[in-house]
């Protein structure tokens, strides 16, 4: 029986050399930094939409139509859907309290998860579903409304909804919450480790 071969490190093991080896190389570090910036920006989009619809900050939602003042966060968007094969379905959902709650909880949950960098797989799945449904409601392949007016669609396939969905998926598969987020801490929690394929 032969003795095991011992390989000595090329440099002495010190705190500095261990830290140097554990750090990503500069290009990867720069890329992960920009990915984190994109993650924070996309998360902000969801949080801002939630806050504007909740309080009526005067951008897309006037104060008098805020959710806190009795307005519906889905009525304005869904009641104006007039193109595509599902237009009637979406109009019927406009102002439904259950749909309002699901939409607002989705905006808040996705926004908090993406900004904090935790539960990115759940955020990606739910955010992609939300964005695809909004894309279908706007129905970008249509060039004209039911009244014959231009829809404003500039591309029959892609819209910002699908770009956000792709970004959410990229955040989840690249562990983008680890940089400038709580992703590493989240991944160490026992219940997350037991269910990493869903909760990571």
Automatic annotation (TrEMBL):
It is a multi-pass membrane protein. It comes from Actinomarinicola tropica. Pfam families: DoxX (PF07681). It comes from the Bacteria. Keywords: Membrane, Transmembrane, Transmembrane helix. The keyword Signal does not apply. Its main location: membrane. The chain crosses the membrane at residues 30-51, 98-115, 120-137, 157-176. This is DoxX family membrane protein. InterPro entries: DoxX (IPR032808). GO terms for cellular component: membrane. It is found in: Membrane. Signal peptide: none annotated.
